[in-house]
Amino acid sequence: MSNTQEQDKLKTRRRGKELEAAILQAVRAELKEREYAAVTMEGIAERSGTSKAVLYRRWANRAEIVLAAIRERVPLPLEEVPDFGNVRDDVCGILRSMNLNNTQLLSKAIYGIISELGAMPLASVLFPEGRSSRSMSIVLQRAVERGEVSGEAVTPRLLTLPIDLARNEIILYNEPMSEETIAEIVDQVFLPLIQKR
Amino acid sequence: MSNTQEQDKLKTRRRGKELEAAILQAVRAELKEREYAAVTMEGIAERSGTSKAVLYRRWANRAEIVLAAIRERVPLPLEEVPDFGNVRDDVCGILRSMNLNNTQLLSKAIYGIISELGAMPLASVLFPEGRSSRSMSIVLQRAVERGEVSGEAVTPRLLTLPIDLARNEIILYNEPMSEETIAEIVDQVFLPLIQKR
DNA sequence: CAAATAAGAAACTTAAAGTATCTTATATGT
DNA sequence: ACATATAAGATACTTTAAGTTTCTTATTTG
């Protein structure tokens, strides 16, 4: 019993994808325990039972390895967007999921990563494939079908509006949004702009 | 002729506020020339004609000294908010000024500073004295007097809405907003929410 | 003009990034 | 099953910059 991270060591020599997965998991474990600045290549190597040389064969530097570790988890599986029966609750659901996904590992490391990778904009980390929001598209499609929203009202700007405001909150305060904040964004800003009158 | 930064050196020995101002100016000069990661204490000391010991007597670490250098410039002198005669242009003016002030030194260093200072939220750097926006208050006050906007429409959330969206853009893309983006924020989002119908 | 204070120079310690070299386990092709 | 290629893992090394320490000397202040 009680086996925190690794196996008994000296089992076998891991390779390829198996080894890589173990390393990235070690990165996430380190990131949970300490600040980004205190996560070292030595520490990662030790925790994953390998050596720095192995890390540098796969990633160019610390920022890259941490980014890889986060990307594995962060592009949240948007598989399905739950249908609560009305736009309001659907959008609140999306914002709550941002709360979960963005504030854990990501916000802890994101500043360091961007800083060390040079002038790489935050956008390219968060949306490797552009800004559009799949989940918002789905939710608004439904709303149009229900007759809650008129199709013409949905511009690209409005499509991402709740997510933009939520991101601003999360980054600004570095903690999950409150339910009050979510309600403000949806009820005071988003709904009045898209609902049919 | 041609004297980029410093004087002839070995003039006199500066002290107190005079010395401090020269150091912070050197920090800003360094920050203009290179990335945050490449700004070193040695470099700052050399450029300002002093030594590392002097820097460490005043600031605890690199992040602190850079933050001090930026703070001197960033809390933009909101002295007066120009009156263009209508809310729309007034708000566009505020967003354009964010464009100027936020994207120069700040966005270059902000990620590194936050990362190195620990879990300090961005908010506390950007708004040492709370979130409310003085300039937006002034502009909306005028709008209410003109009869463009009804006083009850102005909630705290709506008060900072254009600024929140602008900040999101600037941070996300790490560059000034385009005029199109400013127009979208104001015309598609802000005005429809506050204008009398 | 004496004493206190802080500037400036220089040498030092430490931490961690990143590199290079070598040995050896494992996979793969024949 | 065996030879060969490939990559893992250990270890030692170089380099860079942060942060510290010590000492000398200019300037302020009383």
Ordered list of secondary-structure elements with their pairings:
Two copies of one chain form a homodimer.
Chain A: H1 16-33, H2 41-47, H3 52-58, H4 62-71, H5 87-103, H6 105-116, H7 122-126, H8 134-146, H9 156-173, H10 179-194
Chain A binds a DNA duplex (30 and 30 nucleotides) through helix 2 and helix 3.
Account of the 3D structure:
2 copies of one chain form a homodimer. With about 200 residues, chain A is mostly helical. Chain A folds into 2 domains: about 15-70, Homeodomain-like (Arc Repressor Mutant, subunit A, Orthogonal Bundle); about 85-195, no CATH class. In chain A, about 60% of the residues lie in helices and about 0% in strands. Chain A is built from 10 helices and no strands. In chain A, helix 1 (about 15-35) packs across helix 4 (about 60-70) and helix 4 (about 60-70) packs antiparallel against helix 6. The radius of gyration of chain A is 20 Å and the shape is elongated. Chains A and B meet through helix 6, helix 7, helix 9 and helix 10 of A and helix 6, helix 7, helix 9 and helix 10 of B.
List the keywords.
elongated; mainly alpha; 10 helices; homodimer; 197 residues; disordered N terminus; 2 domains; Arc Repressor Mutant, subunit A; DNA-binding; 0% strand
End-to-end separation of chain A in angstroms reads: 63 Å
The helix/strand class of chain A is mainly alpha
Gyration radius of chain A (Cα, Å) is: 20 Å
Q: Give the strand tally of chain A.
A: 0
Largest sheet of chain A: none
Mean of pLDDT of chain A: 83
Counting structural domains of chain A, the number is: 2
Indicate the overall shape of chain A. elongated
